[in-house]
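tool=predict chain=A
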Amino acid sequence: MTTHASTAVSPQLPRRHRSEPQPDKTDRLRKYRPDIQGLRAVAIMMVVAMHCGILDIHGGVDVSFVLSGFLIGGQLLAEIDKTGKVSLGKFWARRFRRLSPSMAITIVGTAAAAWIFGSPLRFRDYVADGLSASLSFLNWRLVENGTDYFANDGSQSPYQHFWSLGIEEQFYVVAPILLVVAVWLSRKIFRNRFLVVLGLLAVIAGSFYLGWTKTAENQPLAYFATHTRIWEITTGVLLALAAPLVSRMNTGFAAVITWLGLGTTLVTAMLISDATPLPGYAVAGPVAGALLVIAGGCANPRFGAERLLDNPVLDFIGNASYGWYLLHWPLLVLWPSIVDREFSMSDRFRVAVLSFLLAVLMHYVVERRFKRNTQLVARPWKGVLTGFVLTGVTAGAMVAATSVPLHLATASSGAVAAGYKDRTSVQKAVAVTKLSALTQSTLPQAPDDTTDRDCIATIEVTRYQPLDKCVVGSPEAKTTMALFGDSHAWQWMDLYDAIGKDLGIRITVISKAGCSPQVYRILNPEVNREYRECDSWRESVFAALTKSRPDVIVVADRVRQEAGRDGAVAAWKVLQKTGSQLVYMTDTPQPGQNVPDCLATHLDDAAACNRPEWQALEYTDFRAMEKDVAEKYGAKIIDTTDAFCGNDICPSVIGDQVVYYDNSHVTASYSKTVKPYLEPLVKQILDAM
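tool=predict ok
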């Protein structure tokens, strides 16, 4: 969101006021574009409103990309026209003066706030993100990590919004060089700019195609990658190239398309929802709208959208837009930890307002000082050097922060957490407030405390493939069992391995991430569409179970709001036909927050991370429905609740063991301690066969 470069598109002309006579068709390009300043303000308000959950509106960053392309492209093309080249030193000095100071303050300040208020378990990941942000390649780190931009589970990084800045900064490095080369070649070969236009169109078409097609295959790549997003900036460059021609259009027509463009931007932005595959083709709406506003404004029509966009309020917001973009997201991510309560609607407005006030302060105290510094302006090398120094210092601070020790106690060597023993151990856990040194020492490992067996099919897998490593318990035993479900079945793998060894059972684990074994139409947030891979995988599992006919089929899954009786019936009908003894494990309680993070920030108040049983057993009606359908098709029921909840509370720590490794899944360490509870129930089912 770095569009607050100078709004100059033709450096030699002064700002024109409405009271002055309208220019003729050859004198319409202006140094200052108040409509662009207003559109910049609209874009940042869209971004903040969407991020804070105030308004379901998308596309603000896309509008910003177009503005960046038009403004920076216009500056570069104007310099090429005038001198035949681009002064890289001056160009990069302007970018450094504009971007680096506020960015450095935000990155370092966010790290400090995360250390004070955030979870110590996330701090090192945060500063690694901060390092990537300072070096302008965070977008690629997010691609590598498979980040879900729209996740709402507390996993967001306070630096996540730097993805768009990374793309723009990569553009600033490459664009001047490529434009100079393209213009020179085009003049040599065609004596005009045909080759430049052709190259820009090729980039736009190729990048748009990649972004559209990759959305379904790899949504993080499509969303964050430079090559899938660069078409949006390039459309702005193409419009800057065409600006002299576009400025000659009829002013009446120009006025119409500016209003059409503003309407298109806002309407299409509001039509995009969390269920819309993004970026896909949906972002083309806000991009096209922004292009129409800018293109129409090139003709300087008297009654265009500039009438609305040119006002003191939007001008003021536009000035603070860069700082607002930088500051609102870290504050939003860290706010629940700062105030130590659930995020409310009033908190959303507080974050929006407070971050804006801080942005205004940053604009006047930091941005304007560097932008107008006569030494830096007169000597571009000083501006470049300042940028490199700030970048180096910021990156160095992030590297140094990775070695900061975590404020957690260390247990004596050889100490072992007890975990579940019996119902009494759960009831005692409800009264625990201060975390023991043993629990604190295990917290850094808790987020990775999962089974080490890679037996859960990833999202893109469409067919079930039996794997030897997914056979646990007693592989040579005659009694066979299948543990079938999503990640809430996979979380029990180590426990069933131990039970299988004791009872002599060959257990095959069949699981797929986010895929219920019951026939529900699931919308997967990671691909932002219907989870078709789940449907085909589930059918292949049904076929495999029908063929192999294990003695026992245990079904376990995360209860979900997509659940429906027809889907449950469809699944249990198929499973009943296998002739296997069917077992249904009720879903584990849901803590509703990232438990290790919560505990790490409440070392003396573990009760703050517990949840009332009535809340933890969310979707009560769906749970009851699934249990009822399973019983009707002959399934034995294993209710897991007593191993997690007591005295109407579901604690987050039991017997010094952290119960969950995130906001939903049980740690492998705790699950193995549940053996005294689960093994007798499994043995009882086997004995009754």
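DSSP finds 28 helices and 13 strands in the chain. Residues 423-687 form a domain with the Rossmann fold fold (CATH 3.40.50.1110).
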